[in-house]
Amino acid sequence: MHSALSGQQAFTLIAGPCVIEDDGAVNLETARTLKALVDRLNETQKHQGSKDSIRFYFKSSYDKANRTSAGNYRGPGIAEGLAILARIKAELGVEILTDVHSPEEAEQAADVADMLQIPAFLCRQTDLLLAAGQTGKAINIKKGQFLSPQEVRYCADKVLGTGNHQVFITERGTTFGYNNLVVDMRSIPIVQAMGLPMILDATHSVQLPGGGGGKSSGQREYAPVLARAAVAAGCSGLFTETHPNPEQALSDGPNMIYLSDMEGLLRDLLAIRQALSPTPVAV
Description:
two-stranded antiparallel sheet, eight-stranded parallel barrel, 18% strand, alpha/beta, 33% helix
């Protein structure tokens, strides 16, 4: 199995608020801040003579279709959500990632998104994977909480079978008893040995699923720990949800990283990658 992106030098950063909120003002603010940060870090890397860089995808969902309770906020829906993402893309020139939940959504979202994400609970849905692959867009498959790293090759094969070789796998923790997840860092080299870029979802990996009484809770203080460990293990990128004020976020606030903390985290991750040189970074 081979992915065309497996030789990519850039460190992939997928980041943004969990869900599109209200009119998208929070999302635009977050995207603008992240883009400026990445541009600044990349310029510093270049000035220092490093070939390493960050490739940024702004992430936010138009529909959180798997909220714990039916009364929890889901998002503005696909039509309004994609319109907001399109405005952010046009204004800032950032690449966009968003979740899709059906073959029909994959086709619609591909008009705006540069990367389509398959949610963890849907990672084995054949029709969805095929439809996403057929869009020709990059595909990020979230590894289900119920899957071993060895099993994700079958999910990836469905996309690769469409002729689309732009496939990422994202580790987001494995169910460990009730309301808890654990990350096995061995999954990084296991998946990369298949020729697939492996990303760590640092924020969902510290989620406490259903642990907040009708909603999920989380332990955001451990997200940077997992991110640093994964980069030291040679991961291809980082997925992290971030928000200017996670305490007021409409979804996944307890595990989202404060936007103001992102610069320190990214500087740490770049330093770790630099410390691994001249050992090739597996991407």
